[in-house]
Automatic annotation (TrEMBL):
Its EC number is 2.7.7.24. The gene is rfbA. NCBIfam families: rmlA. Residues 2-238 form the Nucleotidyl transferase domain. SUPFAM superfamilies: Nucleotide-diphospho-sugar transferases (SSF53448). It comes from Oecophyllibacter saccharovorans. This is Glucose-1-phosphate thymidylyltransferase. Catalyzes the formation of dTDP-glucose, from dTTP and glucose 1-phosphate, as well as its pyrophosphorolysis. It is an enzyme of class 2 (transferase).
Length: 293
């Protein structure tokens, strides 16, 4: 399975902060925002990742992330000239995917759960259809909303409904089978002129191959695309790391836990940032797990 990390868009909901830089490069506590969905893809076991950016921001992403070898993965970069919808990512990357199944993560999303790696790998191993994750929110009108029947089976997904039928929002993490590019080519622009990911998901739902996994208690999902949610995400990460001593959204730690890099490579990451708490935590992870080996 390959992964796409969509980090384009103009970030207008975060102006003026995003007038000078990409939204996905803004800090969420002690890391760039893009580190969090990148860690999620790595925890899913994905090593071949395409990063889609705006044309003028791409050099900044390359300077931050390089070719991926420091995390034991491979990065490919593509541009999205205009924000024409999330589903456009599959058209941009169609030749690169070359018929492979794919996971798509939005660059402003953070998911945290103790059992997240297991859920991700289960989704990655499903051979047919698509998997999305739903999370209860107080403002479902901002998202794609999924409704269920009395047996808990998904019935419908509606994009940003004025009167939501449920408070279950579809998060910015999606898994698709090898047919996703063919399906994406059938999506037509919505009233707002975008290729909606909700329409793609609805196509899988209509054929009975969409799996909706619920993120319940013990899980946290944060969309950091607005000032309030950006601050909430940073506060959440700070609380977990300071209170429990657990790293949140570190690609280096995720790569180490997946076996993509070894303890000495993780220590090298820590030494590069030895003046920061993040660097010290990476060194601690390497030393603790090495002592248990």
């Amino acid at each position: 399975m390959k992964g796409i990390l969509l980090s384009g868009g103009s970030g207008t909901r975060l102006h003026p902060m995003t007038l000078a830089t990409s939204k996905q490069l803004l800090p969420v506590y002690d890391k760039p925002m893009i580190y969090y969905p990148l860690s999620t893809l790595i925890l899913a076991g994905i090593r071949d990742i395409m990063i889609i950016t705006t044309p003028h921001d791409q050099e900044q992403f390359k300077r931050l992330l390089g070719d991926g070898s420091q995390f034991g993965v491979t990065f490919t970069y593509r541009s999205q000239p205009n924000p024409d919808g999330i589903a456009q990512a599959f058209l941009i990357g169609e030749d690169w995917l070359d018929g492979a199944p794919c996971a798509l993560a939005l660059g402003d999303n953070l998911i945290f759960a103790d059992h997240l790696p297991l859920m991700l790998r289960e989704a990655a191993l499903r051979e047919k259809g698509a998997t999305v994750f739903a999370y209860q929110v107080r403002d479902p009108e901002r998202y794609g909303v999924v409704t269920f029947d009395e047996k808990g089976q998904a019935l419908d997904i509606t994009e940003k409904p004025a009167d939501p039928a449920s408070n279950w929002a579809v998060t910015g993490l999606y898994f698709y089978d090898h047919r996703v590019c063919d399906m994406a080519r059938q999506v037509r622009p919505s009233a707002r002129g975008e290729l909606e990911i909700t329409d793609l998901n609805q196509m899988y739902l209509d054929e009975g191959t969409l799996q909706v996994d619920l993120l319940g208690r013990g899980c946290a999902w944060l969309d950091a695309g607005m000032p309030d949610s950006l601050m909430q995400a940073g506060t959440f990460v700070q609380a977990i790391q300071s209170r429990q001593g657990l790293l949140v959204g570190s690609p280096a730690e995720a790569a180490f836990r997946m076996g993509f890099i070894d303890a000495e490579q993780l220590r090298a990451h820590g030494r590069k940032m030895s003046k920061t708490e993040l660097g010290r935590m990476l060194l601690q992870v390497a030393d603790t797990l090495r002592s248990l080996a």
